[in-house]
Amino acid sequence: MTKKGQLEMGITLMVIIIFMVILIASLILYFRFTYTQIEENKESILDQRYNSLLNVIIGLPEFRCSKAGVESECLDASKLDGFREVSDSNSDYYKTIFGDVEEIWIEVIPENGKDYYDQIEYNIYGGSNGKGVIYSVPVSLFYPDYKKYKIGILKIRGIL
Amino acid sequence: MVLRLNRKGIAISFNWIFSMIAGVLILIFLVYFAVQNTDLFGNVTSKVVSEELEILFSGIETIKTKTSLNFDKNVELRFSCNQGKQVLNVNGKSGNSLKGKIVFAPNIVESDVFNIATQPWNVPFRVANFIYLWDEGYEFSGDAPEIDLIEELRGNGEKIVFALDNNAGCANSGNLKTIYYTHDEDLDDYQGYVCFEGQRSSPVRFYGKAMMIGAVLSDSYENFECVKTGIQKRLEVVNDIYYKKSQKMIASPVDIDNCNPQINGLSYTDAEYSTDLNLLDFDNVKRFESINNNLVRGGCVGIY
Fold it and tell me: What's the pLDDT tens digit per position in A79-109?
């Protein structure tokens, strides 16, 4: 091979190497960008899903308070108290409604006493393993026999 | 590109080979990019429609509403039944479970715009809001009941006959789907049965205005029975909740002083209720309503 041939071979190899480097760099950039986009989409879909689940829970007749069939904007604490037993005995059914959430519970500001009225937390569904993102919304709790209201926070722990 | 057997020819070949490799790589990259960003074989559309319907159903299943959903392109929704659970296929793809939602719709609906409405099912407490989905209206004949949503469903599609219940089963039906019903003035509600294939079919019972509207949209016995399975399950769990609540009220330390539940011999303990959907009737519902009213009038906490 002549010197000119060697030179042209060298140039060709250089071009191939530079091209490969640019290609790999752009592929890395592209996939990183796509990955970030997928992560953002996933987060926004889960946000929508869990926020809509909070609305679904608040609207379920299993929790909503009513008087002679007329519903109002609160959750009935006496229903919440008995719900865990019902959800445990119908776990497959509630899994289809609540989907892949880890846990659903309601926190209440504590007061002194012994009755369900003084419960500081109603565990509605699932159990805590401490993982996942928490979505919450304030709710009004009605204690029908005490005829009193309290403020609670409905929380769900979603899987990310 | 011809490989010449001289020294210069080697360099020319390399350039051609390099151009081909680079071209193929760029082409693959572009095809891949296009596939990622276009609706490949309709998969993206079916996923988007599926997600949008799920979010919409979740948003409206707790309220009474009527709306329409426009996808800007023709979409086929196919409702089927898998082991007593409703499954939704969009454009023949991805069978999604409806996550406990009770949806009445024809087996197949195909359009770019869908009508969607909801109606609560009360027996007498609310068990669920049923979701209705349809594309074209129905032609009603006979004694069509005066219900707003039935009027909304009017159109030029399938012919459906409404008739007052005469307890004669499907024998007097013609060849069309016939809905026999009775109206109760006190409850302002309906009960009856459906003959899906006219006189050739067996009657299928329904209770309530919301289920009667559902019977209009269900185009087969199997479709209706599948939705009924979901309703039956909800009735059982919601009834269970009210039973637990009544037990709690009996045990409550504060309500008894203010409450006289033994009015007309009816109390919390009488609040037993038939959870068999096929046995549910006006008498059953009225009895439960009467117990609840007596409790409330006696100063007690109502069950529902």
Answer: 999 999 999 999 999 998 998 899 999 999 7
Pairs from B183-187 (Cβ < 8 Å, separation ≥ 24): B183/B145, B184/B282, B186/B286, B187/B124, B187/B282, B187/B285, B187/B286, B187/B289
What is chain A's mean pLDDT, rounded?
A: 87
**Model pTM score:** 0.82
Q: Please, which contacts does B45-50 make with residues 24 or more away whose CB atoms are closer than 8 Å?
A: B45/B71, B45/B73, B45/B75, B45/B90, B45/B91, B46/B90, B46/B91, B46/B92, B46/B93, B46/B94, B47/B90, B47/B94, B49/B75, B49/B77, B49/B90, B49/B91, B50/B88, B50/B90, B50/B94, B50/B96
Q: Is residue B302 part of a domain?
A: no
B304 falls within a domain: no
Contacts of A82 in chain B (CB under 8 A): 241, 244-245, 247-248
pLDDT digits (tens, 9 = 90+) for B177-235: 999 999 999 999 999 999 998 778 889 999 999 999 999 999 899 999 999 999 999 99
Which one of B160, B189, B219 terminates a domain?
B219
Please state the ipTM of this predicted complex.
0.81
Position B206 scores a pLDDT of: 96
Q: Judge whether B224 lies within some domain.
A: no
Give the minimum alpha-carbon distance from B98 to chain A in angstroms, rounded to a whole number.
Answer: 8
How many domains would you assign to chain B? 4
With H, G, I as helix, E, B as strand and everything else as coil, classify residue A152. strand
Window 83-122 of A: residues touching B by CB (8 A cutoff) are 83, 85-86, 89-90, 93, 96-97, 99, 115-116
Residue A78 in contact with partner chain B when CB distance is under 8 A:
yes
Structural domain harbouring A71: 2-158
**How many domains are there within chain A?**
1
Residue B227 lies in a domain: no
- Residue B156 structural domain: 137-219
Q: Do B55 and A49 touch (CB under 8 A)?
A: yes
